[in-house]
Input
Amino acid sequence: METSLHRELKHYFAANSQSVEVTVDGYRIDAIDATGALVEIQHSGLGSIRKKSLQLLANGHQLRIIKPSIGNKWIETYDRDGGSLLRRRRSPKKLKPLDIFRELIHFTQVFPHPRLILEVLAVDCVERRIDRVNKRWKRKQYQVLDQHLAKVHDATILNSIDDLWLLLGAPQLPKQFDTLELSEAIGQPRWFAQQIAYTLCKCNATKPVGKRGNSIVYQVAPKRSKKRKTSARSKALGTDAA
Output
């Protein structure tokens, strides 16, 4: 079931009302923006649109994948659907742009690509819930009714290998490094650094050059060509959603 958040973002990026939910090359596309780029709003994992993305890019389309990253979420719990508000609180959970590496690990067959722009879009939202009457073990004690867009902030735009290094904060690494050294350089747990290292290698940002004990040793791969400029850009962000 489509959430209001997904629907609102489709209209936010669409060139006009006729540019929402269009069919291109047999695929249902969320929107087409003012530049003519195909826009996909992707709340679930990037791996689920890997095949679709590969085909659209192979057909020569400019593809823009919007990955909402919820910064602030207010949770409203109601007594029933359409009923009275029982309580409202702010969720302590926050996503960060760096979390995109957890999904890029399943998208390295697609990214990077000169006609692909991946935007990690920071948004605030309101989530409406009701408590479950029959609360079973290993089951959420609530049911999500809907999510609404509250505010759109800035976007982290990823188009190239250089953008991945910038997302990591341009870490200072030795010429040859393992995942422990990467973990220390970016201030993240080693298990996460291992996922990042795998992703960088599959994206040809690094290459394995040996082993140090049980750890793979990597080296930054030489640049193959000059970074290409892209024409698609984010809309002016930071305004309250309608």
In short: Residues 225-242 have pLDDT under 50 and may be disordered. The two ends are 22 Å apart (CA to CA).
